[in-house]
Amino acid sequence: MATGNRNMLRVSSVSKDYPTPRGPLRVLSDVTFDMAPGNAAAITGPSGSGKSSLLYILGGLEPPSSGTVTLDETNPFELDAPGRARFRNSDIGFVFQDHCLLPQCSVLENVLVPTLVGGNGGDMDAWARELVAEVGLGSRIDHRPGELSGGEKQRVAIARALIRRPRLLLCDEPTGNLDASSAAHVAELLMDLHRKQENILIAVTHSPALAGQFPMRFELSDNALVRAGSGP
User: Fold this and answer.
1) pLDDT confidence bin for 41, thresholds 50/70/90
2) Considering the entire predicted model, what is its pTM?
3) I want to staple 83 with a disulfide (CB 3.0 to 4.6 A). Which of 25, 79, 117, 199 is the partner?
4) Average pLDDT over residues 21-38
5) What confidence score (pLDDT) does residue 111 get?
């Protein structure tokens, strides 16, 4: 992997504890890795192993108990709350298991939601329409979520996550609620758009089929992140 700092995601000695009545519960211990633009990694592990906690730390949603995370040399946890929110909105895209679409809004309006905060940096409406076409929903652009299938909703969520051209795209079980055919389509779409945009892509998943699409694979076991092989 590249060793320069520019545009890199650097995770250094990250640990995470949660308070419990019996004392701190450790879910992550000394997690360390680097990823460069164009890298894509899947993270697997059993339920409760800390996969989602790690993703939320990488996305600036939850601070580590110790260690650091930087993206393009910026540590989001050194920013104040408004600065951290701006950083997440401009530099990080999220795709969750639940698409989290606004039911009253059209496909196009849902994709444009992240642009309502901060500068738009150009004609975002045109870019949103291009993204909707890229995910294969050009003919459904005015439809509302209630008129879409589960796989189509997740494709809208992917377009929404990419609208600000984030340097880091984080996916939490993005195919977890889909049937096998829709899951395969969404996995292929994620990888295709990742290659086109050359962002850093990280997905946590229980799905061997999804993990197998990624060139890098990690596994969380006993609170530690270990390399689990490489894909095609």
Assistant:
1) very high
2) 0.90
3) 79
4) 94
5) 95
- CA max distance for the chain: 55
Given CA atoms 127, 129, 133, 137 in this order, what sign does their dihedral have? positive
pLDDT of residue 122: 57
Q: Domain 9-100+166-230 falls in which CATH fold?
A: Rossmann fold (3.40.50)
Instruction: For the chain, give every domain's residue range.
Output: 9-100+166-230
Q: Is 51 exposed, middle or buried (0-12, 13-18, 19+ CB in 10 A)?
A: buried
pLDDT confidence tier of residue 120, bands split at 50, 70 and 90: low
Question: What is the predicted pLDDT for the residue at 98?
Answer: 84
Block residue for tokens 């890795």: 33
Burial class (CB in 10 A: 0-12, 13-18, 19+), 214: buried
Positive or negative, the CA dihedral 4, 6, 7, 10 is positive
Alpha carbons 72 and 61: distance in angstroms, whole number: 17
pLDDT at 48: 78
φ and ψ of 92, to 5 deg = -130, 130
What single-letter DSSP state applies at residue 180? Answer: H
Q: Rounded distance, CA 176 to CA 172, Å?
A: 9
Q: Cα separation of 173 and 205, whole Å?
A: 5
pLDDT recorded at residue 228 = 82
